[in-house]
Amino acid sequence: MPGTAFCKSLSSPPANLCGLFAFIFTVCLASPESYGQIFNWTPEQMIKFTAQNPFERFPDGRPKVPDSILERVKSLSSEEVLAIGSRGYPNQFVEGLQILHPGKKLVGRALTLQMMPLRADLAEAQMAELKAKGGRYLSHQTAIDMLQPGDVLVIDAMGSIASGGIIGDNLAYYIWKTAGTGFVIDGAIRDLEGIAAYDMAGYFKGATPPAIHNMIVTGINIPVRIGNTTVMPGDVVFGDREGVYFIPPHLVKDIVDEADITHIHDEWTRKKFDEGKYKSSDIYGSPSDPALIREYEDYLKQKLGEKRYEEYQKRKAPRR
Q1: Most exposed: 90, 225, 306, 320, by fewest CB within 10 Å?
Q2: pLDDT tens readout for residues 278-304
């Protein structure tokens, strides 16, 4: 059984510890209705630490960015999300992870899971709390079972490959079918051949044949570290070929609104290039000829509509 495999990964494990591991993994697949957890925010704490969220929330307080905005996020590029750095969030991009399907974007709301190296006294304390709460136990599957449509499972596993694959093809399939999104795992996955067959997005540190071992869950829906980034529950996850961004909910609407302007500007730029009448510097990055400036502004107004164009003009006006 998995508990036995846990023990084999240790040198000369105490007999009582082997029994503890076996018991823990026996109950790991039980219902998550009641479980012991080391770190967890109450709904009040979740609201406090995500106070700038302008949207509704899940019952546990996690920000719930609307599906309509998530749809708009799918049209972004990493270069467009880069604007969050000038808004005081320069550390939200993670590069260097392996990408399951580079051509498939990952967009959704972060559901976070924190894992740490197994420690016997911590495991014993968790088991004691487990017994007090009716025999349920916290595991990585507890977090997976909490996924809602549009969620992205974000796991801080310390970048460890040696601790085994946290998910394999079966759990990846569950994530794909339940959330309709994918995963970001700063750690290992397994069954890569099987997972690669699914039309889902995934970012991970590496792949390895062994299953997860010698790790323990220390928190669900708390701040976690992925690479050099702090991820909050409810952040909008955006992944493309270049890497993964974690966008604070209160910034996401401004980002997609500004990206609409960029897309229209790029469209107009290419139309002018297609005419074959201009040098690149006449048009890009911005025209200097007054007639071309007026043409672009008219094009932008037509594409945005009167109301959004007025809002755009107000945003770009210099503050006094």
Answers
A1: 320
A2: 999 999 999 999 999 999 999 999 999
